[in-house]
Amino acid sequence: MIKNNFSSLPFIFISLFFFAIKSNAQTGTLSPYSRYGIGELQFNGFAYQRAMGGLGAALQSTGRLNFLNPASYAADTLATAEIGVEGMLVKLTDGINSQKKQNGNLTSLSLGFPLVKNRWGLSFGITPYSAVGYNIKERKQAPDADYIYSASGGINRFYIGNGFRLTKNLYAGLNASYLFGSINRTRKIEFFESGFLNNRYTQTITVSDILLDYGLQYKFNLKKDYILMAGISGSNSSKINATKSILWENYTIRGTNVSTLRDTVENSKQSGAIVFPFNFTAGFYLTKNTKWGLGLDVNYQDWSNYKAFDETEDFDKSFKIAMGGQWIPDNKSIKYLNRIEYRLGGFYRKGYLQVKNTDINETGLTAGFGFPLRKSFQSMVNVSFEFGERGTIKNNLVRERYGKLLIGITFNEDWFHRQKYD
């Protein structure tokens, strides 16, 4: 008798997918620098990639998804589900005052499987694109008032990607992403004296459009079982449809912070577009016998052409360099400790933000482990750590020092393998 080895994996994924859609408003950042543009860009890779500094251009695996380069889907020979969550602790300081904050959110949910093994692979899922999340209070005098700036939300993406093996060693792929979500920013002025009306200005930007990104990978078979993968990926500058709503109100506060609306200054809605930047990544990954690997990625983004509703921002070009590697032992070993995977990496990012004529850059170190869930296939729990610093205390700015814990669960199954039994 012949049996196709399907399982409950699709039902688990669909349940988690609807949970992810419901909870997409979770804030993935605590940075005051997310007040600019579309917020802080989010890393779209998975936990095992984060542990290697964020590599993605040249990574390819039979049982790991790599959203960062859709050409990699062609190498997927197992059905794979990737689920990621993140916890974050941030210390903010301006050199005089400091504050600690913490946060947690769902970072990714993706499914991929081969349509034609070693020829054509498909993946789809949901990942964050950008996030905003801050709450800043400034006290000013003459007249005495609190200026309060806060924001939440972000842009998410639902993607469907295909990867194809064009020749023996050449792979190509394309992701089509539907961007959706809202960014809510509020500015309030609350006066201490009763003779003034308090002021609340709320701006909501809602995004809804399609973004395409592409990828190529090439495999070089070298001597002595060495393999060098080279890859490029990116997206062109794109106009993304968006709407901007403004609600400007005056109000009074009585008793225990109970506000009473007095009048509405503005209540408007405008359709327009946001120009997303040109984005390009190139990298390589060297392996031997698939036991270990070392890689390097270089990313470039041209934010100087950014525009939102025909208004420009003083953004600059940015680049990121990431390095990392992993050690993958024998997964057939009887001893569990001999099957644990080890990863290490780091990155430097020259940011596109310039605040008070100062670049807002970021550096980070990463590490992680892969713990097998079972001996069959490659199902695994990937635990990654990231420690970094962003910004500076120069020119009265804010420096962020953060630690992140990322947990990714990878489920693998051979859906289309036919098994014979008596």
General description of the model:
With 422 residues, the protein is mainly β. It has one domain: Outer membrane protein transport protein (OMPP1/FadL/TodX) (Porin), CATH 2.40.160.60. 4% of the residues lie in helices and 62% in strands. The protein has two helices and 24 strands. A 14-stranded antiparallel beta barrel has the order 3-4-5-7-8-9-10-13-14-17-18-21-22-23. Strands 1-24 form a two-stranded antiparallel ribbon. A hairpin with a 6-residue loop joins strand 8 and strand 9 (198-221).
List keywords for this structure.
422 residues, disordered N terminus, single chain, Porin, 62% strand, two-stranded antiparallel sheet, 2 helices, mainly beta, 14-stranded antiparallel β-barrel
Radius of gyration in whole Å, from Cα?
Answer: 24 Å
**Gross geometry:** elongated
Strand content: over 45%
Count every helix, treating DSSP H or I runs of 4 or more residues as helices.
2
CATH class: Mainly Beta
Query: In terms of per-residue confidence, which ranges show pLDDT below 50 for 5 or more consecutive residues?
Result: 1-6
- Which second-level CATH architecture applies? Beta Barrel
For the secondary structure, the number of strands is 24
How far apart the termini lie comes to 7 Å
How many structural domains?
A: 1
Q: Averaged pLDDT, please?
A: 88
Q: Give the CATH topology.
A: Porin
Strand order of the largest sheet: 3-4-5-7-8-9-10-13-14-17-18-21-22-23
| Helicity, as a percent range | under 10%
